[in-house]
Amino acid sequence: MALAWPQRVELALLAVAFLCGAVAAAALTRTQGSFSGSCPLYGVAALNRSSLALSRPSAPSLCYFVAGASGLLALYCLLLLLFWVYSSCIEDSHRGRTGLRIALAISAIAIFLVLVSACVLRFGTSALCKSIISLNTTISCSEAQKIPWTPPGTGVQFYSNLHNAENSSWVHLVLWCVVLVLQVVQWKFEDTPFRPLERGDPEWSSETDTLVGPRLSHS
pLDDT by residue (tens digit) across 7-56? Predict the structure, then answer.
């Protein structure tokens, strides 16, 4: 059974949301790994001779939360895509009111989680960059990637990865908002089911008069 057009658009958006969530989770995990498991968000950098060091990192759980939320939502999008592809090919692909209620609740939770994650990435990266620039060794965070870090191998492409994770999260947020709007539209369609015209309805009388002409009353 073919999917309705709002559902097809929703699945296309979920496919892109899967990619955004996967990119955000992978980029942040790569950055945390380059700092030996320490979370650089909201961290404080220090100057160690001619190299930089992350002197006061944030709790690792902060990065785990952001990466975990993005990764779990990406996994949910992938599983949902596979489910609806299977349902459209094998079974009845109609989603009832109960399914829409669950989808609306999950979309609202997803928007909250992605919004929190995007804000943490935005302000956490900004705080780290301000700490680096205050050392007067560089004028921008992107330039700080060229400065050696202590221990060696730390902070490899840290700003590029954090920037990619943040951008992916904002796109992820927009996609989930559009998905929620589409689900509300489907809810409205489910809320007003089609009812065929019956004798006695005003619309039935007007349609009949148009086709066969008004009936004459017998005195």
Answer: 788 889 999 999 999 999 999 999 998 888 899 999 998 887 778 888 89
Quick one: the chain helix, strand, coil %, rounded to 5? 65, 10, 25
Distance from C-alpha of 177 to C-alpha of 170, rounded to nearest angstrom: 11
Q: Is 124 exposed, middle or buried (0-12, 13-18, 19+ CB in 10 A)?
A: buried
The answer to whether the CB of 40 falls within 8 A of the CB of 162 is yes
What is the three-state SS of 18-86?
HHHHHHHHHHHHHHHHHCCCCEEEEEEEEEECCEEEEEEEECHHHHHHHHHHHHHHHHHHHHHHHHHHH
- What gap in Å lies between CA 29 and CA 171, rounded to an integer? 19
- The whole-model pTM stands at 0.80
- The Cα–Cα gap between 69 and 146 comes to 30
